[in-house]
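Researcher: I'm preparing a figure for a lab meeting and need a structural model of a single chain. I don't have an experimental structure, so a prediction will have to do for now. The sequence is pasted below. Please return the structure as C-alpha cells so I can convert it later.
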Amino acid sequence: MSVTIFEFAKSFVAGRLQAAVFADAYIELWKIERDGHLLQNDAEDLSECLSSIFCAADMYSQDDSRTEYELDDEMLKIEVSRLINSLI
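Model: Understood. Here is the structure written out cell by cell.
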C-alpha cells in the first residue's frame, strides 16, 4: 500500500505538486498508513525511505523567516528526489 505514497512523492519531484501542498498531504497520508499499521508491511528499504521523506516534509517551511534546519521549496524537492533515487 505504501507504494501509493512513494508514487505521490515521485509526483512532487516531477513538478506536479507545489511544496506546501505536498508536505501537508504527504504527512497526513503517512500518518494514515502508520495508524492503519500498513507501513509495517513494507520492505525495510521502502519503509526507511518513506519515513525519511516524512521527516523532510515535516522540516518544510514556506515562511521566509524559516530556521536554519528548515527546508524551503527547492530544498524539499532536492531532498525528496535524493531519497527516491537512493531507493531506485
